[in-house]
Structures are given as C-alpha cells and as structure tokens.
Design brief:
The protein is α/β, with parallel strands linked by helices. It has a domain of about 200 residues: Rossmann fold (3-Layer(aba) Sandwich). It is about 45% helix and about 15% strand. The chain contains twelve helices and 13 strands. Strand 1, helix 1 and strand 2 form a beta-alpha-beta unit. The chain is globular. The structure holds nicotinamide-adenine-dinucleotide. Nicotinamide-adenine-dinucleotide binds next to helix 1 and helix 4.
C-alpha cells in the first residue's frame, strides 16, 4: 500500500504519521511538507526511518505529479496555512496553499487515480453559531481569510468528486489540541506561557466557545474515514466537548498550580467567531467512529507532553517567525 500524507510535519499531520507508521507497517508512507514555520522535522524524528520524507510545496506541480505517478492508495491531505490570526495580515499565503495547493493535488489524483483522497477541512467553514449545531448540509459562512480559503478548498474537493469522480471524502474536524501543536495556538500558548510564568493573552472576555477534539481522536477518525467512509461524502467530526476559552485557561492554570492572575484580556480580533458547534452523527452512522478522549483527560496528556518536551517548544518560541507573529498580535505583552 502507498500512503501520501501532506503537511505531515505539522501538528495533526505528525500525530497522523506516527499512527499510520504503526498501523500500516510494511506500506510505503510518503510525507510531503514544505516545512514552513509551522512544520518541524523534529516532530517526525521518532519515525524518520519508516517514512519517505519529501521537502516540497503542494503547489509545485512537478513534485506533486512525480508522487502521484507512483499510484497512491490513500491520500491524507492536511498541508495548509492554518492560523486564523496570521490570515489577518498575510492572506495570499492562505489562498495559495489552501486553494491552489489543494487544486494541484486533486488534479493529479484525477490524472493518475487514487484509492481514496481524505481532504481535511474544518468546522470553521460554517462560521459562528450562537445556539444549536451545524450539520453537513448547513451553508458555509466563513469569517476569515483562513476559513474562506478552507471553504474554497472544501468545495473544490467536492467538485472534483462530482465532476471527475475523484474518490474524495471531506472531513471537517473541530478544534484539535494535543502534543506537537505549534505554540502560537490557544492551548499550547496557554500551557507554555504558564510554564514560563508569562501572561496568558485571552481575546475579549474569553467567552468564545470551541469544541475541543483530542488530536489522537482526530487521527483515528481520519483513518476510519479512509477505511470505512463513503466516497463523495462530507463528515463533521466534533468532540462534543464545548468549553469557553476562559474556562480552558483557568483549567490549565489549575492543573499547573499557577495563579489566575496570569490571565490577561486583550483586544478581541476582528470578526472573532463566537462559537463553533457541529452535529457529528453522520460519521458515527456511516463509519462507527466516535471520539473517546474526554477534555480533562486530553488536557492532562497535553500538559504532560509540553512539560516533557520543553526543548522543542522553547526553540520554536525563540525563533524569528514566532517572535514576529507575537509582536504583531500581542505587542510587548510577553
Ligand atoms: N489544528 C486544528 O485545530 C484544526 C482543526 C480542524 C482542521 N484543521 C486542518 O487540519 C490540517 C492540519 O492542521 P494543523 O493544525 O496540523 O496545521 P499546522 O499548521 O500545524 O501544520 C501544517 C503543515 O503544513 C505544511 N505546509 C504549509 N504549507 C505547505 C505547502 N504549501 N506545501 C506543503 N506543506 C505545507 C507546514 O509546513 C506544516 O507542517 C489543516 O488543513 C487545517 O486546516 C486543523
């Protein structure tokens, strides 16, 4: 079996590679990743001898064609520009990678054929919902260049399935958390700043709600979709673990024995989605998949990982890419 994972040096991608290597031992596992600021080869160190790593851009038609020519059984497409805050000040990168890069992959899947193409979308394509839940049939209503570019990619993947018969399955996971996440994202920023006794920035009053999916659950869900999902379908993948940002921050501080006074409210970002929430019954009905990890358990595992892997995130937090982003968004706060 030949498996291609794009964005495999990133957060969800590296967790997926670790599991795929165990589950499909004996298969050829190709990881295609441009190693942007968000991609870290150290995330793949434990499995580096078991994969073929290609440093390359999904927008590079030559590199992508050479890979698909080999006839791929499963594509897990995760490569993306993934941070909403960065999409405020550098939208072109999001359009290029998320839309054009997805097109290049789909086009080659069409040309050379694939067993299944798992397109990893996001709950953010629906936009915000105050009450109730989005289903797979709810309209897309994105609020940022990030979610708009993901909506474009999601629609393109569905169009390649309908028009050209590419065996696409679109999966829309909710907010992930867990080991190997880049420390600009909310949960790792809370944990690492708390470990460094630095202020924890919270947008607005911290009342925004996210549905937190432990990354290993997300990985199992993507693999289950590849094995049991129906081609041409779209699946929501929520965790049913909604929490307000302020409560997440307080829980992390409590677990670390740090004071709540580290929490610092900062000016909200424009068009900050208030709540994401999806019904995820279809994925269960079609594939039997249901996330297992409760938020309290997942957050403990995540905190433990950041405590034990201080070297990895300290190096990232000292990098010019992290510093520059931090300055743009939080000024001199920490
Ligand atoms: N993290 C979440 O909470 C979440 C939730 C729902 C959906 N998603 C989606 O899941 C996927 C993975 O998210 P993540 O959080 O792991 O992202 P991430 O930012 O941690 O990793 C993205 C990876 O893609 C690589 N990449 C970026 N541009 C590339 C390009 N042009 N060519 C090749 N590689 C490139 C980066 O180097 C990095 O390794 C994304 O598609 C994201 O939209 C993420």
């Amino acid at each position: 079996m030949k498996i291609l994972i794009t964005g495999g040096a990133g957060f969800i991608g590296s967790n997926l590679v670790h599991t795929v290597v165990k589950k499909y031992s004996g298969s050829k596992i190709i990881v295609l990743d441009a190693l942007t600021y968000a991609g870290n080869p150290e995330n793949l160190l434990p499995v580096k001898d078991k994969i073929k790593f290609i440093k390359g851009d999904i927008c590079d038609e030559k590199i992508v064609e050479d890979i698909f020519r080999e006839k791929i059984d499963i594509v897990f497409h995760l490569a993306a520009e993934s941070h909403v805050d960065r999409s405020i000040y550098e939208p072109p990168k999001f359009l290029r990678t998320n839309v054009f890069g997805t097109y290049v992959l789909l086009e080659n899947a069409k040309k050379y054929g694939v067993g299944v193409f798992i397109h990893v979308s996001t709950d953010e394509v629906y936009g915000s919902i105050k009450k109730g839940y989005f289903t797979e049939n709810s309209p897309m209503n994105p609020s940022s260049p990030y979610s708009a570019s993901k909506a474009g990619a999601d629609l393109l993947a569905q169009a390649y399935s309908k028009m050209f018969g590419v065996p696409v399955i679109v999966v829309r996971p909710s907010n992930n958390y867990g080991p190997y996440q880049y420390p600009e994202k909310f949960i790792p920023l809370c944990i690492t700043n708390a470990l460094e006794d630095k202020p924890i920035p919270i947008y607005g009053k911290g009342l925004n709600v996210r549905d937190w999916l432990y990354v290993q659950d997300c990985v199992e869900g993507l693999i289950t979709c590849a094995e049991k999902g129906r081609k041409g379908e779209v699946y929501n993948m929520g965790a049913g673990q909604e929490r307000r940002n302020i409560d997440v921050a307080k829980l992390i501080l409590k677990k670390l024995g740090k004071p709540e006074k580290l929490i610092t409210f900062v000016k909200d970002r424009p068009a900050h989605d208030f709540r994401y929430a999806m019904k995820s019954e279809k994925i269960k009905r079609h594939t039997g998949f249901k996330p297992k990890v409760k938020f309290e358990e997942g957050i403990e595992k995540t905190i433990k990982w950041y405590i034990e892997n201080r070297k990895i995130w300290e190096k990232i937090k000292k990098s010019p890419e992290f510093e520059e982003h931090k300055k743009r968004i939080y000024g001199d706060l920490f």
